[in-house]
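Subject: for your reference before the review

Hello V.,

The reviewers asked for a structural picture of the protein, and I figured it would be easier to keep everything in one thread rather than splitting it across files. Below is the amino acid sequence we used in the manuscript, unchanged from the supplementary table.
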Amino acid sequence: MTTTDPLDVYDTDVLVVGSGPAGGSAALLLATYGIRTLLVTKYGWLANTPRAHITNQRTMEVLRDLGVESEALALGSPSHLMGDTVLCTALTGDEIGRIRSWGTGPATATEYSAKSPCEMIDLPQTYLEPILVDNAAARGAKVRFDTEFVSFEQDEDGVTALLRDRVRGDEFTVRARYLIGADGGRSAVAEQLGLPFAGRMAKAGSMNIVFKADLTRYCAHRPSVLYWVLQPGADTGGIGMGLVRMVRPWNEWLLVWGYDIDQPPPRVDEEAARTIVRDLVGDPDLPVEITSTSLWTVNHTYAEEYAIGRVFCAGDAVHRHPPSNGLGSNTSVQDAYNLAWKLAMVIRGEAGPALLDSYTAERAPVGRQIVERANLSRDQFGPIFDVLGVGSDADTIAAGIAAIRARTPEGAKKRRQLEEAIQLKNYEFNAHGVEMNQRYVSTAVLHDDSPAEAWAGDRELVHQPTTRPGAKLPHAWLVDAQGERVSTLDVVGQGVFTVLTGLSGGVWETAARACGDALGVPLRVVRVGDDNCRDSYGEWNRVSEIAEEGVLLVRPDGHVAWRRATAAETDEAAREELLGALRHVLAR
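And here is what came back from the structure prediction:
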């Protein structure tokens, strides 16, 4: 009797549609985990405009786990060139104020640097996507450009996708175990899947103008990614104000300006684009090379479910919002980080299919939060307009600026009001908690009996590390056998579960070996305090929230799945507790 190799039934294990931050990350993660992956994109190459760019610490931690952090650092603009967000009437005009951003100010720099081994950088999508896709291909993923997704059908055993070769013009099918729709804000996969969405599309109109111009003399002394410009029309559509955004310091830029979405879309040819650029810069003779122009809409919508059956969606396909807070590509990469290890373990037979239900449970609340936060940040330009008494013409803007500079009691009052209005923008430019404070609640987390978490600071502004199940493992510096610093995040991840304990937690090391053998699941054991993992600074002792003989079960994505603050009473009890936790999380 002959049997059919099940691999012959499928052309690939996972078909990824879309090569943006979500799709590229998913392909790289799956390939790294040894899963057969096919990535397709209808375009002939990767991102041709810089679009997303802010790359926060959590995303850098993902890239670090994938071994590509150094490539990102080499291509990105470092944090010290990012932080002086400027509010002005033009780059050559009146400066209204500055905001220390992205954790670069004295009040936030220590908090940011203490909470992660990674720094935030500015990495335009034109640089991020090649890092992801090139490494995915190098690690075994198959990549097809000019290949358009047409439709899919799914059944109990897999997904059959109909694709179109845009060079030859013919259509063909691919059979996969699972499909990931990472095909952006107009996702055909999400639409065909029938995901339920809440919110509203097309709230306002915006235009992007990508250009080259040497703006060194206007920007190098106040280095920033973002220069917000208040001019007549700045409160119409758009993302709150006009924006001159650094792509590469200080000669490549992206300008954002709004338009009235209730009127016919404007025609933005090179001449019109050059005029807008010169107006916002404030230099009528500035040499400008227009690279591209495009129109887009501000959206406020999020999917309430991220998957149906064997089809999953990620990235802008499920959360659509303005670029405020710089959350889009970061959340997209982190969607993939959450999903990929689960798919890998189910495909290898190490976890039950029910594990995949935790993807929506964990990531949909994050998607909703960032959509709400980005739209609220856009609206929070309103108080600045109110203080300045801004109208739709240059005279009222000039009068507003004059009023806040008046050497009178009324001028002093307005300056205090303006400072308060500008400080409100910390929720856009220093939202460390929004970026790092995810707390997962799902069947892939086994919560303990700890009392409800008390937040010492503003949950949106301040990252609060904890080893509570569902939270990301806290960063602490350790020292290896060669005397080099390594982060606690460096000793977990890489596609496997980690049993993390201390020198006196030997019972958990024994239990981990037994559980790994019983379940056929690789388990890494890390004992903080041994020669290769010394707590030389005492940082882990201060943040671990468990005794040295306690234990954490850390998932491949660095989130804590289960913890026990103290040792089990016996070896057998330790084995049974750890085995029960693993079976719960893996849906076994």
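For the response letter, the relevant points are probably these. The longest strand covers residues 197-212. Residues 358-379 form the longest helix (22 residues).

Happy to draft the paragraph if you're swamped.

O.
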